[in-house]
Q: What sequence folds into this?
């Protein structure tokens, strides 16, 4: 079953068309989101082939993998540690909610890792800093710069 799921995910990722809003390359202020063309003479609405594809039912992903993360795991949004209970590491992956503070994020991440769950948006774990040793490093004495003979004596 896992091989079949990964095969369907590859099909889903390879079959994606880029649906672009008309005029996106002409105007900087237009967002790169799909908007249905509604103009009377619009070439994209009339489906002129060179103007790009329109969203159609044939572009959908297979139902077995619809909504899954590319890793094949189901994406679960977690806001606290209690939501980790009952999740299966073979089926679920965890995404920590954006509104959670850093301290709680670290606790949720640690508990999820201990449970064997994959965290899709992990935070870097802080490494404890080593305290500097009390012995100062030995410095080599600096040698005076080579100065021309006549100028070294006259600094007035």
A:
């Amino acid at each position: 079953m896992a091989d079949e799921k990964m095969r369907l995910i590859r099909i889903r990722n390879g079959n994606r068309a880029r649906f672009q809003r008309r005029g996106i390359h002409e105007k900087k202020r237009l967002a790169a989101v799909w908007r249905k063309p509604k103009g009377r003479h619009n070439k994209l609405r009339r489906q002129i082939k060179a103007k790009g594809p329109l969203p159609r039912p044939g572009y959908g992903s297979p139902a077995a993998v619809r909504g899954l993360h590319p890793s094949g795991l189901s994406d679960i949004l977690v806001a606290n540690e209690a939501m980790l209970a009952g999740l299966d590491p073979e089926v679920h992956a965890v995404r920590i909610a954006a509104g959670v503070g850093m301290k709680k994020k670290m606790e949720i991440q640690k508990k999820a890792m201990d449970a064997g769950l994959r965290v899709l948006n992990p935070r870097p774990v802080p490494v404890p800093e080593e305290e500097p040793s009390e012995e100062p490093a030995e410095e080599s004495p600096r040698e005076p710069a080579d100065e021309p003979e006549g100028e070294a004596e006259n600094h007035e």
